[in-house]
Known about the structure:
The protein is α+β, with helices and mostly antiparallel strands.
Amino acid sequence: MPAIPSLGGLRGRGNPRNGARGNGRNRVQPPIPVPLSAYIVDCAVYVDGARLPGRRTHAEAIKEVRRRREGFVWIGLHEPDQQQIQGIAEMYGLHELAVEDAVQAHQRPKLERYDDTLFMVLKTLRYVEHESPTAASEIVETGELMAFLGLDFIITVRHGAHSGLGKLRQDLDREPERLKAGPAAVLHAVTDHVVDHYLEVTSAVEDDIEEMETHVFAPRTMVSAEQIYLMKREVLELRRAVMPLATPVRRLAEGFTRLVPEDVRSYFRDVDDHLTTVSERVANFDELLTTLVDATVAKISLQQNTDMRKITAWAAMITVPTMIAGIYGMNFDYMPELHWKFGYPLVLVVILGICLLLYRIFRRNDWL
């Protein structure tokens, strides 16, 4: 395990050719290595399903398991870099391509086999709390969880600040019967944990979509199409996390590798059932949001038509007094009722009568 060099020691090293000027501005300080312990969340040895007491490094843990010829190692990592994970990769025989994927992240859910090691990628989800789905800018936050599965070890690599496995590990430590099946039981527990969280997130998203649907069809409210498209984008994040995972889980349930015993495969079948439920929900979300977009566009068009009819009706009524006033404003001497005492009141009555007639016609046709 690399040690952190002291800053004082670094300052004291100068260029021998420059003497005291070796501390000059041109010398580049070497990077300070970060110890692997900063990335290891937990490292434990399990024998017959029970966790052995004591703290061990990753090298000590695998040596202990192979000395006993029983048990397995579970190492949890959080966002390691290439340099720090390299020691574990060499000790546990991890494939370089899988290690690269685990470090860089941004992978789609998948299951790959490298010699005697499985590499599985899962997307984690977190529901972002908000006051209303019609004003939220983000609803679902995603992360990633990778797992290396071997005959006597499992290494989990987590990216993101949510969906931590600390509580899951504590629960498994209290139930050693579940871990007697070996590291495959941990892989099942992790997958089941992620998929169960999918169910929680989709239930919350379903409530948001129902609330948005209520706003769309409410008589005096209007939801922008942009907000519904935002919700569709969040549902797309769900699809990217959920849909590709179906094939890896089904392969594990069908005996894709001897690393997963028969008694653990049946549990993966249960996970597959839950994942199918989530997939169906997400597919329904997409269809429903497409319908809401169409309904919103239709409602906007109807509102615009209604507004246009109102504008047209008021313009027609305003045209009547404008036309009559325009005629009598031409200042001709010989015009009807021009010199009659009751001409002005009569013109006002005619204007008002025509306007009232038009108003009743427009009201009867629901233009006003």
